[in-house]
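User: For my dataset I need records formatted as: sequence, then structure tokens, nothing else. Please produce one.
Assistant:
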Amino acid sequence: MADTKFEFGLVRAPGHEEATDLEDGDELILIDEALTSDSSRFWPEATYRPGQAQPSFDKQFVRDHLDAVKWNRQPPAPVLPDSVIAKTREKYLEAYRLLTGGQLS
């Protein structure tokens, strides 16, 4: 794993709605998926080369396509071509295989 992110939320205890700091009784919660190809970058260790672009098993392939078609990042997003969807699926399945040793169909 090259990097990852975690997204958290804060559930305020009753009476703490206006507080600016974490108060007793408040609860910090994980609010999104974690350690998947959507939130993490996985690079094959055997081919890692510092200072170079790495082969990856994450959604960077989709981002690269959207950059290539010059999407302005405003809704609506462009429709992804079937080839981009298929290649992204392949990358996710390969990540699963490498991480778990199992196969998904």
